[in-house]
Amino acid sequence: MKTKKTLLYVVISCLLGFVVIAGILVKNANRILKHELEKFLGEGFSVESIELHWGSVEVRNLSIIRPDKRTTFKSSGLLVKADFIGLLKKENMVSELALESPYILLEVDRSGKMIFPIPKKEGGRDKKEKSDKKPSSFLVKNLEVKKGSIDYLDRKVSNMPALIKLRDIQLDVENIAIPQDNVFSDYSITANIPGKMGKGILKGNGRINLRTKDTKSKLSIKNLDLTEMRPYFQKKGDVEVTRGFLSVDTNINISSSKIKAPGRMVIRDLEFRRDSGNRFLGLPLLAVIKLLKDSNNEISLDFTIEGDLDNPKFNIRDSIIQKMTLSLAKTLGMPIETIGRSVFEFGGEALKKIFK
To answer: End of a domain among 152, 179, 206?
Structure first.
């Protein structure tokens, strides 16, 4: 009997010891995360509160404001959960990072340079000890974004900036190294793309190495409002598109900075302002209208985007427009030699071939 009591006391003592140790780990893990967050917050950052909970740190109403007073990021809630096993191994691991209703502004200036949403800290390279200090690194096991929003403002594309909006973003990512490391992250994303004529839907999933940019994924866009994309494809002399929808399905493969993305696009319900031009994507408008009439107001095109992402002359946007134009020209029956010479210069001979 005495032996049993002794054993019971030992078990209870071990359990109490485990609880105490677990409490210390939770407290220390949260303190580490809170310290890193506070160190990260600086000029341009605003946060309502940073609160410690059992096994987590919660940040309320976080925002980032540029020197020009424009908000480039905000989130009603940021939840960070610590990984105790990683802490025991003296590794900074985050088991979960959740963002509630985040918003981010991505802006490209007229020269094509991305304006970084997070303002750089002044004097960060002035002191030797700061430049030599290795930044803290984290591995986020799971990132979840709920009800996110992105505004992409492109000032380079034309005199009138293009504004592409993503809304109701739902994003899940597994294994993200901060700063970027040579690890693959699995992700899935859904989002709405609002437009004047309707709402497009974006879906994607796959794997990406954020350091090398190696990618293997699938992307689907349904019913994208083409009128919102006019700054990207409408050139001088082109007809004004007043209505139209684009759907795209593609498999994206990137390896050693080389991209290969075969896919299929469908353009439907195109309508034009007839007195605004006589070409669409540089092709004769009459030929396009005839094709629409013969194919139930829907045009299906196959394409493959290929190129070197490290080549400054390679532009994915321009490549997509070019492939769309070439594929449409082939569908219209344009002579191959004419397409190779220039898709923007078609004469009477090409038109004769189409209407034979």
So the answer is: 179
231 shares its domain with 351? yes
State how far the Cα of 121 lies from the Cα of 132, in Å rounded to an integer.
Answer: 16
- Which phi and psi (to 5°) does residue 107 adopt? -130, 135
Distance CA(89)–CA(80), nearest Å, equals 19
pTM: 0.77
Q: How far apart are CA 136 and CA 120, in angstroms?
A: 17
Residue-number span of the structural domain to which 271 is assigned: 192-356
Number of separate domains in the chain: 2
- Find tokens 């993200």 and name the residue: 176
d(CA 140, CA 131): 25
Query: 192: which 2 tokens?
Result: 């709405």
Higher pLDDT, 81 or 353: 81
Tell which residue, 162, 150, 160, has the closest CA to residue 189. 150
**pLDDT band at residue 10 using 50, 70 and 90 as cut-offs:** very low
Give the pLDDT score at 341: 45
